[in-house]
Specification:
alpha+beta, 8-stranded antiparallel β-sheet, D-amino Acid Aminotransferase, Chain A, domain 1, 3 domains, Rossmann fold
Length: 448
Amino acid sequence: MFKRVLIANRGEIALRIIRACRELGIETICVYSSADEGGPWLEQASQSICIGPGPSKDSYLRIERIIAAAEIGHADAIHPGYGFLSENAHFAEVCRDSGFEFIGPSPEAMSMLGDKVNCRRLAKKAGTPIFPGSDGGIEDVDEAVAVATEIGFPVIVKASGGGGGRGMRIATDEKSLRSGIEQARQEAQAAFGNPMVYVEKYLESARHFEVQTLGDKHGNAIHLYERDCSSQRRHQKLIEEAPAPGVDPARREKVCESAAELIRRANYSGAATVEFLMDKQQNFYMLEVNTRVQVEHPISEAITGVDIVQTGIRVAAGEKLPYQQSDIRINGHAMEFRINAEDPARNFMPQAGIIETWVVPGGPGIRLDTHARVGYRVPPNYDSMIGKLIVHATDREACIRRSLGALGEFKVGPIHTTIPLYQRLLQEPLFTQATHDIKYVERLLVAG
């Protein structure tokens, strides 16, 4: 097992990793920017090292500074958390070449699954359901038109090298496809340094379904069942729940096992999430693979009892997965609410500033992963999430009731948060009846 792990991240995920390491007897080193000086998570680390000014491009994204900090701190492994450099294959390779174990997949596995064109090819071999679309990257507009004509409009143009809605265009006819291809290429080049795009069938109404997996360095892989992440705005998730409500058990088992098989074939080690869209007939189509631990991992932990972060550290150190698929069972229902420092009433305007009121919920089945507290200054430099409220109960109906109670107890001020939005969404019929799709939040916000 590792002796000292450097955490190349900040905030609640840094604190989450610190706690996992502490239980394994591992010392931790936290790097931080000057904007995060005095961050509460730094108090829990064995050592902290400043690596630059506030902008992430000058600190958390500077590979050479992170490696230098690992050398100064005598680390033997580096954990990237999520965001920043967590899905950067070059960073994983530099860590390895510099003598530090990267707590995550190999650079080769990350590159294979991170490139969506290659990932589609491997998924097809693994039996993982994929969208009808181009077999590889699109070389010219006429080729895209031919593919779209064969599979039928609408289609979506996607960047091969990235995600998060960038390098993505929806086309309802040939004219919009021709203009969208070039726009997507330019955006993909600017965002990911790779202009390659591909075309696949677009679902106008769908739910977002994702499977949590774990792999080790010995060829083993399991799944921890699925999450529903359909409550989202502009491709950014707001509420996640596990398991996905209303899914046929036989279809669930089939798609979850196909995700685990994809991870096995990629020789993948660590936590990964295979993302799907599900149509009204419960047909599944793979979107992408996230080659890291995800923000919403706690709800999978809640329903399975598996510590995903700690298991990721163990397999990075060479241990075999301590579970077989037959050990994994679904227990109850869980939801996660991203507590973002944003004002939903003002088009989700970011809310930087000092937290003066911070009253958190408690009771059975309530977990709060956060780095915030009274007196904490929310910086303007990073993602607006200041915490994650995780609620677990015996079933979905009980989980909604418990969640409404917990959100009602949660008081934050004077900055605004997304808490009032969640209180509204939990009482919307589309959500309570589990008939919502990935566009329902945006439709509600437009309606007022």
